[in-house]
What does this fold into?
Amino acid sequence: MEASGIRALALLLVLVLTASCASSVDKAGGAKPPAVHTLHVLNTRGEEDIAPFQERLSQLSGGTLKLDVEHKWERQNPSADVDAIHALQAGRAELAVVPARAWHEAGVTAFDALIAPFAIDSLALQEKVLASDLPDRMLPAVGQAGLRGIGILPSSMRRPTGITRTFTVPADFTGARIGVLPSAVAEKSLQVLGATPVRWASEGTSIDDLDGVETQVTAVPQYIHDMRSVTANVALWPRPNVVVATPRAYDGLSSRQREWLRTAVRDAIAPTVQSLLNVGEELGDLCRSPQFHFVRATEDQLAALHAAVLPVDTWLRQDADTARNLDRIAALRVGVAPYPNEEPSCAGVAPTPDLQVAATPFDGTYRMDTPAGCDPAPENCGTWIFTFGHGRFSITQENGSACTWGYGTYTVTGDVVEWRFVDGGGIAPTNAVNKPGEDFVFRWSAYRDRMTLSAVPGAISPGPFMITPWRRLSTKPDASYLSQRCPPPAQALPS
It folds into this structure.
């Protein structure tokens, strides 16, 4: 090449390099900020479910990879979870955060083991499972739905919540209509327990025809006037969330951006679990509600619930991959204990001061002893303790096979006392416990330390409370006399 040609080529290279450098410098002389890539995301649950994930993604990408999220998408639609999958398939968004419960209905069974009844029964175990190799085993299956898997985020544990009854034994589920967000596995589990699953959306939708729901504790306050109990130590299954993308959106990302997304999900697992443990403030209104309480199943009752849902395990294991995943979860369970504050309770929640109800001659603490065989139902016999004060009462009853409690409010008008039960529970072989809303009326008469009840014509005045006169133990309500074997919930006690 001639010298003139070489000089021309060199000049051209200089011009190209100069232009390249100029393009990376703004008019003020500084480097241009990197381009921001934004992904449109559907999230059928709340912002809190993915906040740690979003925060970590912003940190990793330096704010260059952002999520434009529609939170609580189709919030009052029971089929919102499955609809989100279909919307993503139709290209109406680029990413979606979809609860694992929805995928079975969309033809993907890879996540069924995560929501099998009692397979994952604590946030601690859920954290360990999602930090293991299991998500990487499961996520490729979303390819069957034409999507790309990013990761799996933890979420709340689902517990049986009572409206017309409490749920501690399999018999409590028999014939009950239980609200459930669509989930083939949850619905199968409830059916095996003898309940009728009713597809329900939560988010303030009606619960008028339901006996209970499966839900997270933080969803209960929106129904504070209707829901009566949560079985605190029965974690049916978790609600993990699967993060997925369309092929077009996924392929449009650089390898570095894809890794940011995957890493952000993995790094968000532990912070998300910790945020799920901090629900004290949200329990305040519940714990101060006189009609609500947390109940606990005994060890025998827990064992009975686990045994009752074994047919669901058999059903799930018909799928070889699900069987392997269930075995892997069982192996990961070894040595894992729930976090100390996992089980919801009202401990530490300041009670609402008792209403200023005038003292009455009926107030006090009483005991009644009846023969063990006084009635075919063992729940009606044995040692009874009654405490009445400040317009609130609590009762316990116990014998060898039964130990029950009940509580509510009462009014005294002359020689008539009316009890309105808020709830009842305990160890009840024939399920003869007092139910929310029961209203009983008695005539009463006191002589020295004896209180005698009698029936009021035309009113409901149950016989078990009138078998023998009560003996007054104190002129004030004294919870120390109540059964220690089956005490009523702490917030129910008059003071």
In short: The domain at 157-238+288-313 is CATH 3.40.190.170 (D-Maltodextrin-Binding Protein; domain 2).
